[in-house]
Design brief:
single chain; 447 residues; 14 helices
């Protein structure tokens, strides 16, 4: 008679579990960097969040540097996380400037954000560069089931020319495995869940999904018996961690199922994947929760999250802004439009703050929080949305990097390539042999 365990293996259903102190091997501090780990041996994670259309500088930047700075109006939602974040000013990505290529700042803002190279202005001959997340993934990906994770809340995908003659690939992809090979992000939470916790390829995931729906079971129900058996090997603290993890997993599945029952959101004029919540904020939080689960279970240690592509014209009627974001970002210094754009900037910061708060509640293998053992970049590819400049870009760096970062400050650098920061993060992730990256001029020392 086929046992439940054999039945599960036949389906290919699997679930990754959190890292546990009870089961963790001891890692010497000298080995930590090589293993993309902290000095305690817990995994070190890096994520890159991208928000669209720049920010209003006067509402974004704090007035005073150092540790006793006051959060600006746009960043006020991060006040409760002061000890976990640092605001970083003075970083630039000059390959995003137009120069002889002219218009196309939205495509360049996305395409250069993690590559730091000049894009070829063409709708068909795509030439970007390898992004820093993929550089990290090449040297750390062997440690996890997924070498990297690419997610988005943009379900729209276009081909051909998008922004003033630039290929759409530049505008809709943050992550690049090669100069002409973008890593397409996943926008559908159901598909992302299947990728993380399903058997692997789309055909099997679809079959398993249909089987689970027919039998009215969740992935969690399939593996709960094995998880309970593991509990006997764990101490009290790790058992509490396992309960928290499984509860979160079930709650996410229920949220996805609810979104699927409600059907897709109203037609915005472009196709939307099924399973996407009708609320944009809920969509962001759901995808962020899935990223946290991926980090918590050590399925991957590097991820990118494009909240929306630069040039996004999404409206925010639920916060009193029915106009398109991109339209009003060309504010021409009109006070009412500046106020509206700044309100959207703050709204995005609220979503990021909610993600960080969740990370801070999750305990890692060494007893520290997941946020403590992470490095989370939050930023945009344009500075002032009215100017489309690419100097003094808006950046926040969250997390402690396992104790290697110095959060709780506003640090202002002087006309420094943003790729210098990317190099410094790659160093901490154990990347070796990378002397320069993009237009970097060195490491960003004061982080």
């Amino acid at each position: 008679m086929t046992t439940r365990r054999h039945f599960l293996r036949g389906l290919g259903a699997s679930i990754a579990l959190p890292s546990f102190v009870s089961l963790a091997p001891r890692v010497r501090a000298a080995e930590a960097a090589r293993l993309a780990a902290t000095a305690s041996g817990a995994p070190l994670r890096t994520a890159f969040f991208f928000f669209p259309n720049g920010s209003i500088p006067s509402r974004w930047w704090p007035e005073k540097t150092g540790s006793d700075f006051a959060f600006s109006p746009s960043l006020q939602p991060l006040e409760a996380l002061r000890q976990h974040v640092q605001v970083i000013g003075g970083l630039e990505n000059l390959n995003g400037e137009g120069g002889p290529d002219g218009a196309g700042d939205h495509a360049r803002g996305v395409g250069t954000f993690l590559t730091g190279v000049r894009l070829k202005k063409s709708a068909t001959d795509v030439q970007a560069g390898v992004s820093i997340d993929q550089i990290i993934a090449r040297q750390t990906g062997h440690l996890t089931r997924l070498s990297s994770l690419e997610i988005s809340c943009d379900g729209v995908r276009k081909s051909g020319a998008c922004d003033s003659g630039y290929a759409c690939a530049y505008q809709f992809n943050l992550s690049w495995a090669g100069p002409s090979t973008p890593m397409t992000p996943e926008a559908n939470p159901r598909q992302l869940f299947e990728r993380l916790f399903g058997p692997g390829n789309p055909g099997e995931r679809a079959a398993n999904l249909a089987r689970r729906q027919a039998e009215q079971r969740s992935v969690l129900d399939f593996v709960l018996e094995d998880a309970r058996a593991m509990q006997k090997r764990l101490d009290a603290r790790d058992n509490e961690k396992l309960d928290q993890y499984l509860t979160g997993l079930r709650e996410i599945e229920q949220r996805i199922a609810k979104a699927e029952r409600l059907g897709p959101p109203p037609d915005p004029g472009s196709p939307q994947p099924s399973g996407v919540p009708q609320s944009y904020g809920e969509h962001i939080q759901l995808m962020g929760d899935l990223m946290i689960l991926a980090f918590q279970s050590d399925l991957t240690r590097v991820a990118t999250f494009m909240l929306a592509h630069d040039g996004s014209n999404r409206s925010f009627a639920d916060i009193g802004i029915p106009e398109g974001h991109h339209d009003i970002s060309h504010h021409q210094d009109k006070p009412d439009l500046v106020d509206k754009v700044a309100t959207i900037d703050r709204w995005y910061a609220e979503q990021f703050a909610a993600f960080l708060k969740k990370m801070d509640t999750v305990k890692d293998a060494d007893g520290k929080s997941l946020l403590y053992n992470s490095m989370i970049v939050y930023g945009g590819g344009n500075g002032d949305p009215n100017r489309h400049n690419h100097d003094n870009l808006p950046f926040v760096l969250a997390g402690h990097g396992g104790g290697t970062l110095q959060p709780g400050r506003f640090v202002k650098h002087s006309a420094t390539p943003s790729m210098n920061m990317m190099l410094s993060l790659a160093d901490r992730m154990g990347v070796t042999g990378l002397e320069r990256f993009g237009d970097s001029t060195g490491r960003l020392a004061d982080i």
